[in-house]
Amino acid sequence: MVSSEQMTITVKFWSYFRDYAGCPEAAIEIDNGATLAKFHEIVCDQFPKLADAKNSTLKAVGLEYEDDGFVLSDGDEVSFFPPVQGG
Amino acid sequence: MVSSEQMTITVKFWSYFRDYAGCPEAAIEIDNGATLAKFHEIVCDQFPKLADAKNSTLKAVGLEYEDDGFVLSDGDEVSFFPPVQGG
Amino acid sequence: MKTELTITTDPIDEAALAKRRVMDNGMGAVVCFLGVVRGNEGNETIAAIEYEAFEPMARRQFEFLFDALGQRWPVEAVRVVHRIGTVPVNEPSLWVEVIAPHRAEAFDACQFLIDEMKQKVPIWKKPIPI
Amino acid sequence: MKTELTITTDPIDEAALAKRRVMDNGMGAVVCFLGVVRGNEGNETIAAIEYEAFEPMARRQFEFLFDALGQRWPVEAVRVVHRIGTVPVNEPSLWVEVIAPHRAEAFDACQFLIDEMKQKVPIWKKPIPI
User: Fold this and answer.
1) CATH for D2-129, among 3.40.190.10, 3.40.50.1000, 3.10.300.10, 3.90.1170.40?
2) Residue B6 backbone phi and psi in degrees, to 5
3) Which among C60, C120, C126 has the least Cβ separation from residue A84?
4) Nearest CA distance, D25 vs chain C (angstrom)
5) I want to staple A81 with a disulfide (CB 3.0 to 4.6 A). Which of A14, B5, C6, C109 is the partner?
6) Whole-prediction pTM
7) Mean pLDDT of B72-78
8) pLDDT at residue A3 greater than cutoff 60
């Protein structure tokens, strides 16, 4: 159960980050008001292989890129992925 | 009749230079060893409207551009035309 | 500016795309780019590339790029087709078309779109060995 | 480098040209350019442009440009179609295709060819009023 000081954030992993995490997505509990940077740290603690790619990780909330300072809200859907390679 | 000190050069006019000259081509007699520059002068004397466009005239001998210093030979085919506009 | 974005597992049909082109009388330049899967990736010989897209985000990011392009150049229309799934060697994975009044802006806008796409649009590739 | 030059009074058939394309497995980029007759030339509204070519010299000059291009970029193939005679507004007068391993060189080589063509190849245009 989530306490009133915590929120649930869904994180999706794309491309080989899915292999690193071992799953396509996860629901993570985190303190209210946490930033995207803090969330990233927590996810890296839980999925250590993602920590190795931390500096090259691209981060989106919903359908848009967001900076580390972005303050998450309960129910946000975060995506972590490696550099894109379209074309 | 062409004397042995003279040669015959054919000149072709392209695009609106044909209208300026009033004909698509002409055979011109000129001294042996004349340069393309000298030939151009003589053609401009004969077709005065071409003299107005003298500085923007492009000059070819056969199928290649040549400089004013190019020395003509008997039977050469010269082309004079305005700036090209392909595409 | 007219825009058309297709993200599909179907092969890219250039002839059909050319036939559907509609352009204004004031337009003088069409630039098309095809990105084609090469038979080697690094030192490895491959059979195909598998493209994966986070499609809703890819669509949003393409919209941003179309907006940026339209603010910068007087382009009449942009069409993009990105094939995803398995794309065999020698087949196109990307087709981009830009229609503009003049040549220079059509080339610049087309290259801008591809450059930016390769930075922003969440599509990834995985080489499939022979 | 493979080259193909067509100077013709026939309309340019993009779909047929696309179908006839053959490219090596090492090639990753195709850039096509279409130059289309605009409905106005300066301030004048026109119906068509009449293109005139000094064709043997145009062919020779294109050969020089193909040679220069091949020395500068690792291009596999260049195809050029220039329509001459009367080309109605909204129809293409020029089609250029460059095939190369990578995008940047395909774009650069294609633009080089068109820029140089507009300086060197003896083709002229005359607007046909409505």
Assistant:
1) 3.90.1170.40
2) -120, 155
3) C120
4) 5
5) A14
6) 0.95
7) 97
8) no
